[in-house]
Each structure stands twice: as structure tokens, then as C-alpha cells.
Amino acid sequence: MFAGPGTIVFFCVVIVPFIYGIYLTFTSWDGVSKTKPFVGFANYAAAFQDSAYWTALGRTAIYSIFAVVFINVLAFALAYLVTSGVKGQNFFRAGFFIPNLIGGIVLGYVWKFVFNRAFVAIGTAISGAQVPSLLASPSGAMFCMILASVWQYAGYMMLIYVAGFMSVSDSLKEAAMIDGCTPAQAMRNVTIPLMRSSFVQCIFLSITRCFVVYDVNLSLTEGGPYGQSVMAAMHVYNTAFTYKNYGMGQAEALILFIVCAVIGITQVMVGKKGEVEA
Fold it and tell me: How far apart are CA 9 and CA 2, in angstroms?
């Protein structure tokens, strides 16, 4: 009675569409016509020959590497700060988490205003000459994407790290200090190994979210300049819904799903092997 409704909804909105999407990869459906001509593996062959898709996927991988590293470094630092007994730490926890509550579309438009207006005005006032927006260059647009994503997700990952810090017994830290460890050595040799499950969860969530980023990509850069910030999810969307090639779009989406799943599962398996229990 409790699990049934949730299971049915999950099956209807996730499993069935996923299976239907796999079926569409073998058709040349345009999203409008009633007929769905069967084309076999032609869409997969076209996807593997689509250089723009692989360029977007490579760009997504680069963005994900930097974003995942910065998200987790910042989240870990914030978690350490709000569990160190600093005054008002509960207020800071709530404040750092709030950006995660903002939708990606809204967040992208907010940061777009900051990069196009605020930073430009400040830079112009300081230098005395007109300063271009960071979004006007490919490298600048990538930096803006990474910064916005770190700002959005770091607070959420912080909560997981906070739970990890709180799960480590104070007695273990005190024992390490009595044995002659410095605070840094106790952190490296006691706290961090016991928090390995928190690292596994945060890195997995960061990877999966960054690899399928679309909303921030759409509202912040719109793929510009000159299509140099189009991520894999945006390319898939454009192929399916803009160019009306649903079959190829679904094939590229399935490839993206497999790549993301392989990376995520591999990371979890490697991380789980080294988990330490108190």
C-alpha cells in the first residue's frame, strides 16, 4: 500500500518513457507524423559520425571535471566551517544551501545579468575603458558555466559532508590527538577516511548532474558565443526538438546516458572498495 503508488508512478514516468525512447532510436520519426519508419541502427551510425555531438560531449567532460572538483572542494570547506563550532553555523548552513533551491533557468538569468551588467560595469569603472563580458568569449562562457554550477550545487553537497563530519566520533579524533597527531594529521588520517562514503555520494551526484546540465546552459549562455558552449544535453535537445530528428536525438541521448552511467558506476565501485568503518 505504501510502495505501490510510488512504484507505479516511477514505472509510468521513468521506465516506460525510457523503453519507448529506446524504440524511437530505431526509427526516423520527426515528432509530428503518425508513422515511425524503422531504420535499424542508422541513427546510431549517424550519431557516431556526428562530430558536433562528440565535440559537445568532450566539452561537457571538460566542464564536468572542473565543476566536480570545485564543487566538492568548496562543499567540503563549507562543511568543515559549519561544523567547527563557529558562531551562527546553523544560519550559515541555511544560507549556503539556498542557491540549490533556485531553479536552473532562473539561476542562469541571474548570473547572466551579473556577468553582462554588474561585472562589466565594475570592470569599466576600475579600468576606465569598456570591458567585454565574460560570456563574449568561449573560454569565458565555460568559466561562467562552471562558476554558476559551483555556486548552485556546493550548498547541497555541503549537507552530505556535514553528515559525514558528524558521523565521525569525537573520541576517535581525541585519541588521534593524544597519540601526537596535529589537527591536520587527524583530519587526513582519521576524519577523511571515515568520510569516504560522503565523498562517493557527493562525487557521484556532482558527475551525474554536470553531465546532463541543460537549464543553466540554456539560460546563461544559450550555447554561445558561436555555439562554443553547447553542452551534450543541449545538442541532444536541438537535434530532437529543433531539427525534428527524434530518432537520432534519442540515440545520442542514450549514448550520453550510457557514458554517464559507466563513469558514475565506476566511480562508486572504486570509492566503495576503500571505505573504512569506525
Answer: 12
Cell digits of residue 101: 533551491
Residue 122: CB atoms within 10 A of its CB come to 11
- pTM score, whole prediction: 0.88
φ/ψ (deg, to 5) at 27: -125, 170
Decide: 92 and 174 in contact? Cβ < 8 Å.
no
Q: Model confidence over 191-228: pLDDT tens digits? A: 888 888 899 999 999 999 999 999 999 999 988 888 89
CA distance 276 to 278: 7
Residue/partner pairs of 114-120 with CB below 8 Å, 24 or more apart: 115/144
More confident residue, 169 or 120: 120
SS (H, E, C) 26-37: CECCCCCCCCCC
SS3 string of the chain? CCHHHHHHHHHHHHHHHHHHHHHHCCECCCCCCCCCCECCCHHHHHHHHCHHHHHHHHHHHHHHHHHHHHHHHHHHHHHHHHCCCCCCHHHHHHHHHHHHHCCHHHHHHHHHHHHHHHHHHHHHHHHCCCCCCHHHCHHHHHHHHHHHHHHHHHHHHHHHHHHHHHHCCHHHHHHHHHCCCCHHHHHHHHHHHHCHHHHHHHHHHHHHHHHCCCHHHHHHHCCCCCCCCCCHHHHHHHHHHHCCCHHHHHHHHHHHHHHHHHHHHHHHHHHHHCCCCC
